[in-house]
């Protein structure tokens, strides 16, 4: 085994070096502009983290506050931050010497029947007391401890971004389920109106039957139409109960009861600002989390590489040792030692090299995960922009359809009362109006949900 000269070791300690690779953000193949965004002729507005306030609904604001305070996913993410902070403190402590206090007392008796007798006058019974402060310190010459600390610091930041991701996702879930609840309220109102209309038609048909101007078939059709709407009403009520239960789960309020509302009362959020550059994706916490994870993986390569080089450590001890406890701290009882140690791996059958390869492969996986997160976020923004544009374009046509269906029903009912139309024509008109009204409500829900998805995809709303 080759012995490293002391002078060379001291020179290395004084000069120092690190083997960690330098971190550089991976390049991404993203355009400067979203394909579905308006032409860029203005700078985008800054991100608004409380984007749900754009709906101007105090109840939604209250639900978001409850979710942020009570949802177990939030508590779990906060605990992960605490865990990462503790790991960082533990890793950082390795950069400083550890000092231990040791104390011991011993009473022993020596044998007089051994092959080597005790020296003349030596006591058979002996007492020994010892107290000392000791330290052991690894010199971070190759930057192993600094790399581990950098990795831990990046993991803390990643945990904080993960917490922000959970909060952003939770806010989106609360908003979408709340919009679903309000859409179901609006659909229930439509179906109740349809039920009143069909019950009126049933009574009119029964009167006509008694007057001899309607057949039993017409009455049976009217009764069937009423029963169909009653069943539709029950299904919508069940869906509303389930939606309310989901909001209760998200907000941590099992006994939550929400009154009725109308999705039409919610204002449409402002249109996306002109010019949505792709760099806004940097505001998304999941992308920032992916990058911090990559930084940590990059630093761990340095930890693995440093294990290939000599480990240099210093040791020290200061204390006292005496046969009498009262003399333990006397000047004559003082003991001390200073030490230096060097450990160099010679043969390990490739174990350390394999650890470096593992760390490098994990870093490559981190690069792929980061690029995937960026590209997925870009796709989500484009999807949300497309959904918002198409649902807005469909709303005008659905409004026309709804008003036309209402006019058809009014004219058909007038013709029936005058004796020019049969009940099946009225029933078709009622069905058309019911479908048109429900389609309008569902499209409005889709339009608002697209806005929520765009807020989430961008990491927040716009001012």
Name the descriptors.
463 residues, alpha+beta, Outer membrane efflux proteins (OEP), four-stranded antiparallel beta sheet, two-stranded antiparallel sheet, 8 helices, 6 strands, elongated
Provide an overview of this structure.
This protein has 463 residues and is of the alpha+beta class. The chain has one domain: Outer membrane efflux proteins (OEP) (Up-down Bundle), CATH 1.20.1600. Helices cover 59% and strands 11% of the residues. The chain has eight helices and six strands. Strands 2-3-4-5 form a four-stranded antiparallel sheet, with no helix packed on it. It has a two-stranded antiparallel ribbon with strand order 1-6. Helix 7 runs antiparallel to helix 8. The protein is elongated and about 140 Å long. The two termini are 69 Å apart.
Could you give the topology of this structure?
Elements: H1 6-15, E1 47-48, H2 58-70, H3 72-93, E2 98-109, E3 125-139, H4 144-211, H5 216-251, H6 285-306, E4 311-322, E5 334-343, H7 351-417, H8 423-457, E6 461-462
Helix pairs in contact: 2-4, 3-4, 4-5, 4-6, 4-8, 6-7, 7-8
């Amino acid at each position: 085994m080759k012995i490293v000269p002391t002078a060379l070791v001291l020179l290395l300690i004084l000069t120092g070096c690190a083997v960690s690779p330098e971190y550089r953000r991976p390049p991404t193949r993203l355009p400067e502009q979203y394909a579905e965004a308006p032409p860029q002729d203005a700078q985008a507005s800054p991100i608004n983290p409380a984007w749900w306030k754009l709906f101007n609904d105090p109840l939604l604001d209250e639900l978001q506050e409850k979710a942020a305070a009570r949802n177990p996913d939030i508590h779990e993410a906060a605990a992960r931050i605490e865990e990462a902070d503790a790991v960082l403190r533990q890793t950082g402590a390795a950069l400083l010497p550890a000092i231990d206090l040791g104390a011991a007392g011993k009473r022993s008796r020596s044998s007089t029947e051994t092959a080597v007798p005790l020296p003349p006058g030596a006591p058979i019974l002996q007492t020994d007391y010892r107290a000392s402060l000791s330290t052991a310190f690894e010199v971070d010459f190759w930057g192993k401890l600094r790399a581990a600390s950098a990795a831990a610091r990046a993991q803390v930041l990643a945990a904080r971004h993960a917490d922000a991701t959970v909060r952003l996702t939770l806010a989106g879930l609360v908003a979408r389920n709340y919009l679903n609840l309000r859409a179901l309220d609006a659909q229930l109102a439509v179906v109740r109106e349809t039920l009143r209309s069909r019950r009126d038609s049933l009574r009119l048909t029964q009167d006509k039957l008694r007057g001899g101007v309607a057949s039993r078939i017409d009455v049976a059709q009217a009764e069937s139409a009423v029963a169909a709407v009653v069943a539709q009403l029950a299904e919508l009520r069940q869906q509303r109960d389930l939606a309310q239960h989901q909001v209760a789960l998200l907000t941590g309020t099992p006994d939550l009861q929400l009154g009725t509302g109308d999705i039409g009362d919610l204002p449409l959020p402002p249109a996306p600002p002109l010019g949505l550059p792709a760099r806004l994706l940097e505001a998304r916490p999941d992308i920032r989390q992916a990058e911090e994870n990559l930084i940590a993986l990059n630093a761990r390569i340095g930890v693995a590489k440093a294990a290939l080089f000599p480990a240099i450590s210093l040791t020290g001890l200061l204390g006292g040792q005496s046969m009498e406890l009262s003399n333990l701290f006397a000047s004559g009882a003082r003991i001390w030692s200073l030490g230096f140690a060097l450990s160099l791996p010679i043969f390990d059958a490739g174990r350390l090299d394999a650890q470096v390869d593992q760390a490098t492969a994990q870093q490559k996986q981190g690069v792929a995960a980061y690029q995937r997160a960026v590209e997925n976020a870009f796709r989500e923004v484009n999807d949300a922009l497309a959904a918002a544009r198409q649902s807005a374009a469909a709303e005008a046509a659905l409004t026309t359809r709804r008003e036309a269906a209402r006019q058809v029903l009014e004219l058909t009912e007038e013709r029936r009362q005058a004796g020019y139309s049969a009940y099946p024509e009225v029933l078709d008109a009622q069905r058309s109006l019911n479908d048109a009204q429900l389609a309008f409500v569902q499209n409005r829900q889709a339009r608002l949900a697209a806005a929520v998805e765009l807020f989430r995809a961008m990491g927040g709303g716009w001012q």
